[in-house]
Design goal:
A: about 850 residues, Rossmann fold, Immunoglobulin-like, 5 domains, about 25% helix, about 25% strand, B: alpha/beta, 6-stranded mixed beta sheet
């Protein structure tokens, strides 16, 4: 017999309290002179025998009551044997304890989480091990881990491992964990002894041949390697090295936790390990409310309302109502009750927080067993990446009631337009359409500054994010150098074409930043003629735009309904670019092409230094194209400027699920990636940890929250030969001794929503999934002869198999003693009255 | 011989007897004072006996009727009024009352001084009764017994004898075993017939056998009155805890949980009192159960009232 809390046994001394009190009363009675001694003596003679019996019973009841209380609190466990499994306990055995550490095990009931119950059961098993028994521990999580390499008899080592074990936020795959646990039970014995044990085993039992039948109920005891049951005593000497192998699974057996079938074969043995399933929630009264969780959040910017207004669309789901096994209840009854209650919506508080600050507080009404979308709008005060969390009121599994999001709030771009052909007639001005496209309907964006070429030299370019050279024929060499330096420091540049452009100037002065050399200007018609009014003949020779390639944030918006507004554009003149890049230039991305055999580029972008450059091969006014009057003009220009100003990033997932690996795209120059996780966790990855594509597969995240990724380059600050590539839009470089440390990326790690499904499976179903045997699902649970057992075992489980029985027996004794004591005491008090 | 009782005790007086607690009475002063206080409260406004007898003391005239003793004709009244009148005289009350006090150890209960003991209570009642009787000119005497009978004061009616009786009563001390049966036997030998014998005892040691000895006294035409004096502790048994009960007449000690024994004790006590009462009734002994928490005046007034009604019914 062992105890989970042996120190509590000191409380047994308290059981002597009634005896001590009784003896103290006997020793120090009050002396009372009395006259009617004869009557008193006669009274005593009358009741003396009855007294003595009553006193002894009362004393015994009180002592037993206290002793039972102390024993029950100490958690006694008997190593008694289940029927049929006694023979398996005759010799030493090997046990691998699989502790389910998935997120669902964090769910609490009656003050304890399922994981704490599992640890308690695991400790009971360890305490119940015999000196010759060996055990190991496997933790079931997204990637199961073997915590002790080889089965050991060292109880303290096993208990130490259990003390440090923590529940994770990940899903688990019990099938995989059981496979690992079975493999960990490999024998180190010699092949001869193993074969002897195997032959003895096969000779005595024909039923232990296949892995699928390796899980045995108590009525069919295991004979796997068991000396006492495997061919008699004469075999025991040879078979002693082949210990019976057993895998014990401690879990809540929720549906997502089971995963696939397990392989119970033990390396080096012909017979598989037996499997025992222990439901840690057996006998626990679970709440009737369904688990509610936020399963996903989608963020959408709403430029129509405000540039910084973000819509968060959260999916809130009420999972299957019943967490109890269905065997004992009856599905029909449950279904009827669910149908009755499912129409009643339940109010739920929804809160959007940024740290400790509540940004929005609202509520939603959720019907049991359904999923709803709750939309929360918020206008952020700052731009950039903003970590927020959306939470609902916590329930039994509080970890899935909060979800972290990184919101990419649109940044305002400060734009400078250099007007290449100013005109007193507004409509004839080069920037007439451009200026209106950037100004009208964009209250959150500062209006662009407009200067002529002559005034450019008087302006400080550093106060702008993007400079637009709108049909500028040429600049002064000094201004050209300032433009180049501006771009290389991280600024954005948009160059639009015109018939007056001095291509040689551009090829000479702006060569370091232009995507390609400019070859010439191809004009379909002569300038000065209104292309719209020029007639159908010339319209036939005009070029239209091709459908843009997907994958770029600037043009992705035109892949849907907006495509017509783009491809209907007619262009009558354009600048030709060199088709082949020289060695000094960066790769160019063509966002828009002209339709035709040559697929000439219409809009290209490239990186230049730390900045971005876009080149529109046609005009920004209606000189060479009718683009300014097409529906695509305004969104194209706005998105292009946001892209150049690094305020528009390619939509990418800024959230990942815990337990899964998460790819982090690293720039070529990155030499060190530092990841800061919640609760101060820090990971550092050198270049060697990157994969072939140059990405870092990060799978160490274990706690939900915001993860910050910093990328450092190995070059010195200010080095222009190998500038680091920023990893975030509008990132401000922070010079350090090692090089350039860039503004960190933010990612949100969230729990897997599958784990929120706390609907549990019966042990028979779990058995069927794990060992692959069939379960008769048509069986009427109401007519089941026995309720679902708490434990399915293949052989005896040391320490834990009768712990509940002992505790319940003690509780029954306590109740009996309590009743007896009350009866005796009340009879005394009644007589007194 | 006829006996007389105070008229007030017969119910003709409306004044209630003082129901003063025995403990308060004890604090009043010596026994004589207490006795007088009680007696006065009981017999206040008492007249002398209205029973007309052959005493020398003239009472009144009564018109002659046939059958009257002609010797009692008042010739002088005849001479003056020419009518026949009979002279009537006050009747004499010639009661011989002997108080027999149990002074065994058990009568000393309780000995804590907080409450009045049974002996003290008995002495107070006896003194008050003696005072009433002596004031009527009846003869009173006192005998005590514990292990042996002791005649403390013979039955006399002379002036000053009452004080002697009261002195003896006040000097009584409880102690020793109780031998009521042998004491009654001894008393029977030397006592004149037709004596009122008033016994104060708790009868707790062999009392039931002693009651049977009352029969001999009754056979000698004695009027026997038994005041069965019990303390409330003996009747109610209010003890709660583990207690070592120590005998007051010997060294016996009984250690017992009082709560557990209470039920059985109360039954024993009830049975004992019932047996004593039945035995007394059988022996025509006037039995009176008295608790020491009863006011002595009330006890005496009830006693006297019942005696008066008994007397009137006899007439």
């Amino acid at each position: 017999m062992t105890f989970a809390q042996p120190l509590l046994l000191l409380g047994l001394l308290g059981a002597a309290a009634p005896i001590v009190i009784h003896l103290m009363n006997l020793r120090r009675p009050r002396r009372q002179p009395f006259a009617a001694m004869e009557l008193l003596e006669r009274s005593i003679q009358r009741v003396q025998r009855r007294w003595r019996l009553k006193r002894i019973l009362l004393l015994a009841a009180r002592v037993l009551l206290l002793a039972s209380l102390v024993l029950a609190a100490a958690g006694p466990t008997f190593e008694s044997l289940p029927s049929g499994a006694a023979s398996a306990n005759a010799g030493p055995k090997r046990v691998s304890i699989v502790v389910d550490a998935s997120l669902s095990m964090r769910a609490r009931a009656e003050g304890l989480s399922s994981f704490e119950r599992a640890l308690r059961e695991a400790r009971n098993i360890v305490h119940g091990l015999r000196p010759d028994d060996q055990a190991t521990i496997v933790v079931a999580r997204s990637k199961p881990r073997l915590l002790i390499e080889r089965p050991t008899s060292d109880r303290e080592a096993l208990l130490d491992v259990l003390r440090t074990l923590q529940a994770t936020y990940e899903p688990s795959d019990l099938g995989e964990a059981v496979t690992l646990a079975a493999a960990s039970l490999a024998e180190l014995s010699s092949p001869s002894s193993e074969s002897a044990a195997s032959s003895a085993s096969s000779a005595s039992s024909a039923s232990s041949a296949s892995p699928s039948s390796s899980l045995r109920l108590s009525s069919s005891p295991s004979s796997d390697g068991d000396p006492s049951s495997a061919g008699g005593r004469s075999e025991s000497g040879r078979a002693s090295t082949a210990r019976p192998a057993q895998v014990v699974v401690l879990s809540d057996f929720t549906e997502p936790a089971l995963g696939g079938p397990a392989d119970l074969s033990v390396p080096g043995r012909r017979t598989p390990a037996t499997l025992a399933l222990v439901d840690v929630l057996a006998g626990v009264e679970l709440p009737t409310e369904a688990n509610v969780a936020i399963t996903s959040i989608e963020t959408i910017t709403l430029p129509a309302r405000s540039a910084r207004t973000v819509e968060l669309k959260a999916r809130i789901r009420s999972f299957a109502k019943s967490e109890q096994h269905q065997g004992a209840r009856g599905e029909a009854e449950e279904r009827a009750r669910d149908a009755e209650e499912s129409t009643v919506p339940r109010p739920i508080d929804v809160t959007l927080r940024q740290g400790d600050r509540v940004l929005e507080a609202t509520s939603a009404e959720l019907v049991e067993g359904t999923t709803m979308e709750k939309v929360v709008h918020h206008t952020f005060s700052q731009s950039g990446l903003v970590p927020v969390e959306l939470a609902i009121e916590p329930d039994r599994l509080a970890e899935d009631d909060v979800r972290y999001v990184v919101v990419d709030v649109e940044r305002a771009v400060r734009t400078l337009i250099v007007d290449g052909a100013p005109s007193g007639v507004p409509k004839e001005d080069e920037i007439f359409y451009l200026d209106r496209a950037l100004t009208v309907g964009a209250p959150d964006h500062p209006p662009p500054a407009v200067v002529t070429v002559d005034d450019l030299s008087r302006l400080d370019l550093e106060v702008f994010d993007v400079v637009i050279l709108a049909g500028v024929p040429m600049l002064s060499p000094a201004d050209a150098k300032r433009i180049v330096a501006f771009v290389e420091r991280g600024g954005g540049l948009l160059v639009t074409s015109s018939l007056e452009m001095d291509l040689d100037f551009y090829n000479l002065e702006l060569a370091p930043i232009l995507p390609r050399r400019l070859r010439g200007i191809n004009v379909v018609r002569s300038s000065g003629v209104d292309p719209i009014a020029s007639g159908a003949a010339r319209a036939d020779r005009a070029l239209s735009f091709e459908k843009p390639d997907p994958g770029h944030p600037v043009t992705d918006v035109f892949l849907g309904e907006g495509l017509g507004g783009l491809v209907s554009t007619r262009t009558y003149g354009y600048v030709l670019l060199e088709p082949i890049a020289d060695a000094t230039r960066r790769p160019m991305t063509t966002l828009v092409r002209y339709a035709g055999d040559h697929e000439l580029p219409a809009l290209v972008v490239s990186e230049a230094g730390r900045g971005r450059v876009a080149f529109l091969t046609t005009s920004i006014d209606r000189e060479l194209t009718d683009l300014p009057i097409r529906p695509a003009f305004v969104p194209l220009v706005r998105r292009l400027l946001l892209f150049l100003g690094r305020a528009l990033s390619k939509p990418e997932s800024r959230a990942f699920l815990l337990g899964a690996s998460f790819p982090i795209h690293c720039p070529e120059q990155a030499s060190l990636v530092t990841i800061h996780g919640p609760a101060g966790a820090v990971w550092r990855f050198e270049r060697e940890a990157f994969n072939a594509v140059g990405d870092l597969e990060f799978s160490e995240a274990s706690v939900p929250g915001i993860y910050s990724v910093s990328v450092s380059s190995g070059v010195s600050a200010g080095s222009s030969s190998a500038p680091s590539t920023p990893t975030t839009p509008n990132s401000a470089s922070v010079p350090t001794q090692e090089g350039l440390e860039l503004q960190p990326l933010l990612f949100a790690g969230n729990v897997d929503p599958r784990e929120s499904n706390l609907r549990r499976m019966s042990l028979e179903e779990a058995q069927a999934i794990l060992v692959g045997s069939k379960v008769d699902r048509d069986r009427d649970p109401l007519n089941a002869s026995t309720p679902t057992p708490a434990i399915l075992w293949g052989m005896s489980l040391p320490g834990m198999n009768t712990s509940r029985t002992v505790t319940s027996t003690l509780l029954a004794i306590m109740l009996l003693c309590f009743g007896l004591e009350g009866l005796l005491a009340s009879s005394s008090s009644a007589k007194k009255r | 011989m006829t006996t007389s009782v105070p008229a007030s005790a017969s119910g003709s007086n409306d004044r209630k007897p003082a129901e003063v607690d025995a403990k308060i009475l004890t604090d009043l002063g010596n026994l004589a004072v207490r006795a007088r206080f009680i007696a006065d409260s009981v017999v206040t406004g008492m007249h002398r006996s209205r029973n007309k007898g052959t005493s020398v003391e003239f009472a009144e005239h009564k018109e002659y009727s046939p059958g009257d003793n002609v010797r009692q004709l008042d010739w002088r009244a005849f001479a003056r009024f020419d009518r026949d009148y009979i002279k009537q005289f006050e009747d004499e009350s010639n009661i011989r009352a002997l108080f027999v006090m149990d002074t065994s150890g058990s009568m000393g209960y309780p000995a804590d001084g907080q409450r009045v003991s049974k002996l003290s209570y008995s002495a107070t009642c006896a003194a008050a009764l003696a005072y009433v009787l002596a004031r009527q000119g009846d003869a009173v005497g006192l005998a005590t017994y514990a292990d042996v009978l002791a005649m403390r004061a013979p039955v006399k009616a002379r002036r000053g004898h009452l004080q002697e009786v009261l002195d003896h009563l006040e000097a009584l001390k409880a102690g020793g075993p109780s031998q009521l049966a042998s004491a009654l036997h001894a008393l029977t030998e030397g006592l004149p017939r037709k004596t009122m014998i008033i016994v104060f005892s708790d009868l707790l040691d062999g009392g039931l056998e002693a009651v049977n000895a009352f029969g001999r006294l009754r056979a000698r035409k004695n009027d026997v009155i038994l005041f069965h004096v019990l303390d409330p502790d003996e009747v109610d048994f209010p003890f709660e805890e583990q207690t070592a009960f120590v005998g007051m007449e010997n060294d016996a000690e009984l250690q017992v949980d009082a709560r557990e024994i209470r039920e059985a004790y109360l039954q024993e006590m009830e049975r004992f009192c019932h047996d004593v009462e039945v035995a007394c009734r059988a022996g025509r002994v006037d039995y009176r159960k008295v608790r020491t928490d009863m006011a002595p005046g009330r006890v005496l007034s009830e006693f006297l009232a019942e005696r008066a009604s008994m007397r009137s019914s006899v007439r």
